[in-house]
Amino acid sequence: MIETVKDTVRQLLETDEIKGFLGLAEKHGHVAPHLFQQGDSLDNMVLGDRKRPGDSRYPLNKYLINIHRAYPEEVFGVLVRGCDDRGLQTLYTWNQLDPKKVVTVGIACPQELAEACECAEPFPDTFVAGEKAEPVKNNSVAEVDALVLSEKFSYWMDEFVKCIKCYGCSNICPMCFCNDCSLKCDDLVKRGELPPEIPVFHHTRAMHMVGRCIDCGLCEEACPSNIPLRTLYKKVNSIMEEQFDFKTGVQRGKRSPLNTIEAVEGKE
Amino acid sequence: MDYRTVLTTCTYCGCGCNFYLEVLDGEPIGTIPCKTSPVNEGKLCIKGWNVHEFIRNEKRLTTPLIRKNGVLEEVGWDEALDFTVSKLKEITDRNGGDAIGFLTSAKVTNEENYLLQKFARAAVGTNSVDHCARL
User: pTM to 2 decimals?
Assistant: First the structure.
């Protein structure tokens, strides 16, 4: 699997199709995000499967945005799984990346990872390695939804109360790119107040994930308090699907209903 | 162009969380918690998440300061060291080594911290040594 990816990247670099390839490398005994450039050895390239498949994934698209802002004219390659591909599609619609400047090298996730993520689409649109795993149904939201209202409320409050306000969920999020962050707006979240007010802090973020969350699960993995953030945002996504028939990043090129201005009849 | 992710250890406390500094053309632009680190497993606290911001911070001290008439003034190293030596001598002569305490830093090397505690214990004669990373 890795050899196919390396061959693809080698060809992209040698033919000058891309300036660099943002992927993962084994460095100093750890898995690190890494930019491979022409002439670099690809020997240390890895796919982020250490002890379990996908256990060392990084938000590569987020780092790609940083590189793209500094070098907007250059084309870069990036390693994508299903979630990363949804992320790219969404970032294009929010004008954070230019599809003409991005070349993806896709890998399909194995069934084990798809199960762990409860991923509805564990593969990118095009991929060079791996085999399509079966989509997995979302059970974690259903489990919480099955609770009666008061229990549901205590369930979430018991989770939110563990928050240490590290901002890790938004710092790791490939879809968090706003210059002005609501979580740092004094009217919503008081600066310097610890622990944060709950559930306001988490609901503010959940609201801002509407039409943005591509269900990569990196927020939950980054949370030092193990708050089931993925379940929270999966719930947000399920509402978007039920109410607006919108699946973030799945319907290619489709903008979020909250990122669309439609003319209303009779009004300009 | 030069884009690197540099593995390093957090300087804020004694936990020793690992992260990568995201460095673009020589400028630190981000902090990425290391997921394969057995210490922090891809997680960080708010201080760790913002480490890249203090590296080039304008508020970092670059010269020693001595308080003169209630106001901190920038001075040269010779003056600062002479002042420190004279005060340390004066206090230890009058009240003994235990009248002095030393506070060192996580943002210097282990070797420098070793030297400071050695200086405190062997030269000044006190066990009162502490460090901002002692959680």
Answer: 0.88
